[in-house]
């Protein structure tokens, strides 16, 4: 059994929930290159060796269209119907329903719920998840308070933010084997968190304001080897309460990252999906959903990506 999952908390908890729900003992779990929306040669080699595949929390339907093995594709992002008859696509969006996270889709599909289901939702939609009764109930059962839940998400995310793909994949087994209180004290992840928080604050200190016709948009540029771009965007929109933010990491391991996030109240005014499609048509490596897009590109293409976003604004 091969499990291919996203590198963030939602992807890691979705993988852990699938493994526990199916009582799997013989499995391999892998994540794509952090920050890149593609299956690399390493993943393709694993696909060749396996009999059955699960793809979790990865908005990459195009990557499974040619797979000739049984594949279960579970996700919650907006995407097209997969045509490959070997692929069973489980995504409530296709039926006009919205789920806060892939972990919720996984738990619903397998009828298997625990605190990891809640952490996946918190990881994807932040503090809004605490207004979901199911999230509150699952955390209460596990005796986890709000502060602890938020820290658990940050600890799990620290593996991808520090760009440690191996640690991301190891994290699946760690969250399966350890109790929540043990995870909160896990030394390696806590050290990561200290370094990350310093980098995020340095980026936030460079904030600029762009007043467009319909929204108050923040603009942030920085350079960092850490994959903090989504954390910077969430903090700007969720904590500083901007309508949206464009964040640019100008030197991310030789490439650039551009990230655009809007607040939930702006989804009727700004169609992020249209921007994603526009950039995808221009052959950019991009992913996202109705409130967010993320793009990794060559440094020379930063202006093209930003101009495309600004044209929509």
UniProtKB/TrEMBL annotation:
InterPro entries: DDH_dom, DHH_sf
Domain DDH: 2-109
Any coiled-coil regions, as ranges: 186-213
UniProt xrefs under Pfam families: DHH
Keywords linked to the UniProt accession: Coiled coil
Presence of the UniProt keyword Zinc in the record: no
Name of the molecule in the record: Phosphoesterase RecJ domain protein
Origin species: Methanocaldococcus lauensis
């Amino acid at each position: 059994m091969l499990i291919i999952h996203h590198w963030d908390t939602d992807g890691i908890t979705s993988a852990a929930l699938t493994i526990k729900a199916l009582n799997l003992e013989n499995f391999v779990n892998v994540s794509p290159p952090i920050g890149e929306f593609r299956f690399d040669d390493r993943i393709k080699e694993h696909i060749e060796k396996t009999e059955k595949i699960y793809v979790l929390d990865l908005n990459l339907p195009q990557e499974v269209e040619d797979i000739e093995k049984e594949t279960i594709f579970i996700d919650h992002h907006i995407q097209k119907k997969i045509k490959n008859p070997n692929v069973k696509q489980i995504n409530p969006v296709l039926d006009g329903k919205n789920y806060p996270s892939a972990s919720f889709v996984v738990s619903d599909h397998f009828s298997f719920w625990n605190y990891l289901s809640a952490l996946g939702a918190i990881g994807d939609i932040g503090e809004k998840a605490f207004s979901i009764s199911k999230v509150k109930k699952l955390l209460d059962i596990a005796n986890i308070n709000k502060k602890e839940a938020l820290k658990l998400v940050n600890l799990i995310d620290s593996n991808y933010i520090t760009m440690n793909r191996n640690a991301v994949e190891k994290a699946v087994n760690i969250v399966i084997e350890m109790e929540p209180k043990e995870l909160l004290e896990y030394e390696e992840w806590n050290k990561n968190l200290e370094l990350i928080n310093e980098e995020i604050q340095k980026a936030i200190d460079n904030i600029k304001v762009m007043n467009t016709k319909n929204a108050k948009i923040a603009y942030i540029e920085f350079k960092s080897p850490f994959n903090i771009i989504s954390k910077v965007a969430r903090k700007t929109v969720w904590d500083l309460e901007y309508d949206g933010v464009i964040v640019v990491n100008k030197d991310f391991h030789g490439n650039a990252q551009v990230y655009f996030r809007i607040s939930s109240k702006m989804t009727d005014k700004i169609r992020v999906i249209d921007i994603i499609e526009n950039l995808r048509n221009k052959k950019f490596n991009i992913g996202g959903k109705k409130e967010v897009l993320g793009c990794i590109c060559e440094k020379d293409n930063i202006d093209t990506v930003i101009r495309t976003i600004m044209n929509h604004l």
